């Protein structure tokens, strides 16, 4: 029997996704029609981009699952019409991309690269930066992305501590949880990386009180989500120099409005939500595997806990 798969993703990426998903579906030997235009009550699976115009899932009475193309789920998880299971994207390409971005920005600050990139008159004789073993990195969020980034940083000799909701064990990483655990991580983060999801529980997790727990001059790198940070508190801490620099990839409003104070702040780097992206070739395999599971009545991978919001 043939199944129907609706692509509700970015139309600009339809060609590449059509090619990669068709190939991956062929490999699992399932007969399927993949289209951006199908009658709702005939759809078995929806491949979904949370930016898509599709917001009402009620007509999709036959859909066995909605298969997200994004790792982040805050735009969809609270949608009351979403009664179908929602599997988010956990993709090797996405993880590799995030690790490269995080390591790159950690190294920028660790090696004080800006001193030479922006300075045409370098100070001969200045001390070399400390070794990685003497620069402490904290990671809030030890999920699919935080865990891999933490491992890459420990492989470079950075002492890494991380924080998650539940208890975790990652070789070479000091894993903590709970309020005390958060304080412990913050107090020993010369560089702090945010890789938490945006949920009701994580909103403003980095507030004034918690920013004050960071060592003087700490660097904050946020590729997680904008609402994790109390922006007013961060700007105030940057002005005082308590936070030495913030590299921000995500914001409450995107694109970041022209008049946002982050643009003008000398100690802020704004990047346009570019830390990592789903890679169609690897993501197509994840989607096909979930369709295979759905058709063999096996549990889906990467299901979102709608109550926890991630
Ligand atoms: P996961 O769901 O795999 O991991 C989330 C982590 O956050 C887990 O360790 C989880 O704890 C922890 N967490 C969640 N809620 C809390 C809480 N209340 N207190 C403490 N810890 C908490 O997500 P991913 O690693 O795949 O992705 C993380 C985020 O990265 C995404 O949600 C998205 O916002 C962002 N992202 C950004 C991109 C970009 O280009 N800027 C690209 C892709 C993703 P536990 O392990 O105990 O469940």
List the helices and strands and how they pair.
Blueprint: E1 3-8, H1 14-27, E2 32-35, E3 45-48, E4 65-68, E5 86-87, H2 92-110, H3 114-117, E6 137-140, H4 144-155, E7 160-164, E8 173-177, H5 178-187, E9 191-194, H6 208-211, E10 218-222, H7 231-240, E11 243-248, H8 261-264, E12 268-270, H9 280-295
Parallel strand pairs: 1-2, 1-3, 3-4, 4-5, 6-7, 6-9, 7-8, 9-10, 10-11, 11-12
Helix pairs in contact: 1-9, 2-4
Bound molecules: NADPH dihydro-nicotinamide-adenine-dinucleotide phosphate (NDP).
Sum up the structure in keywords:
single chain, 310 residues, alpha/beta, Rossmann fold, seven-stranded parallel beta sheet, five-stranded parallel beta sheet, 9 helices, binds NADPH dihydro-nicotinamide-adenine-dinucleotide phosphate, oxidoreductase, D-isomer_DH_CS, NAD
The domain count comes to 2
Number of strands: 12
Tell me the Rg in angstroms. Answer: 21 Å
CATH fold call of the largest domain: Rossmann fold
User: For the largest beta sheet, what order do the strands appear in spatially?
Assistant: 8-7-6-9-10-11-12
CATH class of the largest domain: Alpha Beta
Indicate the low-confidence ranges by residue numbers: none
Q: Mind describing the biggest β-sheet?
A: 7 strands, parallel
- Span between termini: 33 Å
Tell me the series of helices and strands, N- to C-terminal. Answer: EHEEEEHHEHEEHEHEHEHEH
- Helix share bin: 25-40%
Question: Structural class, from secondary structure content?
Answer: alpha/beta
Q: What's the overall geometry?
A: elongated
Which ions, cofactors or small ligands are bound in this entry? NADPH dihydro-nicotinamide-adenine-dinucleotide phosphate
In CATH terms, the superfamily of the largest domain is NAD(P)-binding Rossmann-like Domain
* Secondary structure tally, helices: 9
| β-strand amount | 15-25%
CATH architecture of the largest domain: 3-Layer(aba) Sandwich
For the residues shown, what is the average pLDDT? 97
